[in-house]
Fold this protein.
Amino acid sequence: MSNAICKICGGSSPAETFKLHYNYRCVVCPKCFSGRTEQLKKQQQTQEKKIERPPGWDAEDDYLEQVARMRKDENQAQFSKIAGTSQVKCRCSKCKYSFKYDPFRKMPRTCPFCNTDVPRLKTFNLL
């Protein structure tokens, strides 16, 4: 029996026990194949997050922070000025479709692809 080194975790195992993993797209050791390596990485990341938090921080605060971050990302359509015109290029926050938007006429009012309302745009930033 010969031992082989796993490319994911760096551990060695008998070569006969290695299996092809669909996500990594290479042969991995039994520990990585079962997902233990990913679980350990996630546990380490959560421990690092817990260390960075101020005293009194709990799971409810984590949840509220996550929801606030999601709402902020959700409500922000991305606008960029199109040179030489009064229009802007808008990228929908829901479907990520890009289209031209006229901030003075406020047209189109919704995303042409998914029919999501276009958020208000402060036009003085674009002039």
In short: Strands lie at 3-5, 12-14, 19-21, 26-28, 78-81, 88-91, 98-101.
